[in-house]
Specification:
By secondary structure, this protein is mainly alpha-helical. The chain starts with 14 loop residues before the first helix and ends with a helix. Belongs to the TAPT1 family.
């Protein structure tokens, strides 16, 4: 029966009668909260449980993919260059380099240029300049550096892709076009070196800023974390995102977590060189605070981004499957959603901060004995890094195969 549009509702009820009607009318929040269903219940538990677990798993796997790439730069690339030099010394004739070898040479030039320039940087001067700023200014400085870090991270990936493409063209070029490809390779290399150097200085400044907050005794670290993380939530959660945007955003968080690890390594190296008294416990506590806050903010951010944009937790499992395929070099339909990470700038920063630590343990005289210890420490470091690289690479590939097989079995059962 249709409602009468001319029906009137009595308003001259007594207060007692009105209250009693409210008592027996139903849910006390019925006027502002609608009755839920199973779908709403599923959304609640997706936000609380299912999505945080899958998101954190994806970010952690992405972190280890970045670490594997970083270790490849410090172990595989030097080994290949040594093999190129050995081949030249053995045959006494120049052989046309392959695209992989040209790419390694380009990365080596960028890495050495950045590391050499960072060695000339006076960290103490920058540290005291930053330390003289107030807590609010530290927050502003760190956020500005973080913005430029993300910009150069994206730009650096494009630059290295361009350099590798030119290396491919130079390796396959004919005699007539070799000069053109050489000029193009040199130009791309200059751009890559410049981008890597600028990005290295940005990361070094970020590391110094974080170190300043950690060693301060005025709760500057907590102020920085709260303000920075709140700004991150505010700038991301209430925006509209597509599934591809969320995919790339998770990868940015993986790279950011790797950069934070490099910053904490910088703080550890500075403490080894300069700290007095018991400092290791305080360092571990501060590092734990940084990691836990970063993990918590990432979980909150992605949970509510997924909630507001109707993205199911299964999407993060699909992202992880794509990352596993990337780990195994399996071509996917959308290459743009691959994790892009250029470890040149973090490597320059790590080399810059670890060199004084190694130098402090070297004898000054005599020179042959000093050279022997340099060779010994370099060899030991290389062996340890190479061993870690092999273990991480094997672990990532085993996990990738297992996860892809698991996803395929699940799809077969669902069909």
């Amino acid at each position: 029966m249709a409602e009468d549009p001319n029906q009137t509702f009595p308003v001259d009820k007594s207060p007692v009668k009105c209250f009693m009607e409210e008592m027996y009318a139903g849910n006390s929040l019925r006027s502002t909260v609608a009755l839920g269903n199973e779908k709403e219940r599923e959304r609640v538990y997706d936000t609380i449980f299912r999505l945080p677990w899958r998101c954190e798993l994806l970010i952690n796997v992405g972190f280890f993919v970045c670490l594997d790439s970083f270790l490849s730069l410090l172990t595989v690339m030097p080994t290949r260059l040594i093999m190129i030099c050995w081949r030249f010394l053995k045959t006494r004739q120049f052989k046309k380099l392959s695209a992989v070898e040209l790419s390694d040479i380009g990365c080596c030039v960028a890495l050495c240029s950045g590391a050499i320039l960072l060695q000339q940087t006076d960290i103490s001067l920058i540290y005291h300049m930053i330390r003289g700023q107030g807590t609010i200014k530290l927050y502003v400085v760190y956020n500005v550096l973080e913005v430029f870090d993300k910009l150069f991270q994206s730009f650096g990936g494009d630059v290295m892709q361009t350099l590798f493409n030119t290396a491919e063209g130079l390796a396959n070029s004919s005699m007539e076009s070799t000069q053109y490809w050489i000029r193009r390779f040199i130009v791309d290399e200059v751009v890559a070196v410049a981008s890597s150097i600028v990005h290295s200085f940005i990361l070094l400044a970020q590391a110094i800023t974080l170190s300043t907050c950690i060693v301060a005794h005025n709760n500057a670290l907590f102020a920085l974390l709260v303000s920075n993380n709140f700004a991150e939530i505010k700038s991301n959660v209430f925006k509209r995102y597509s599934k591809d945007n969320v995919h790339n955003l998770v990868y940015y968080d993986s790279v950011e977590r790797f950069h934070i690890s490099a910053f904490l390594l910088f703080v550890l190296a500075q403490n080894l060189l300069e700290a007095d008294g018991p400092w290791f416990g305080s360092f571990l506590c501060n590092a734990l605070v940084v990691y836990v806050s970063e993990m918590t903010i990432d979980i909150i951010k992605h949970s509510f981004i997924a909630k507001f944009n109707n993205i199911k937790p299964i999407a993060f499992s699909e992202f992880l499957e794509d990352l596993c395929k990337q780990t195994l070099n399996i071509q996917t339909d959308n290459v743009k959603n691959n994790l892009t990470f250029v470890p040149l700038a973090p490597a320059c920063v790590v080399i810059r901060v670890l060199r004084p630590v190694f130098a402090s343990h070297l004898p000054y005289n005599p020179l042959p004995w000093r050279l022997f210890w340099i060779f010994l420490l370099s060899t030991m470091t290389f062996v340890m890094l190479a061993s870690l690289k092999v273990m991480i690479s094997i672990g990532l590939k085993k996990h990738a195969r297992w996860y892809i097989n698991r996803c395929q079995k699940r799809k077969l059962h669902s069909d």
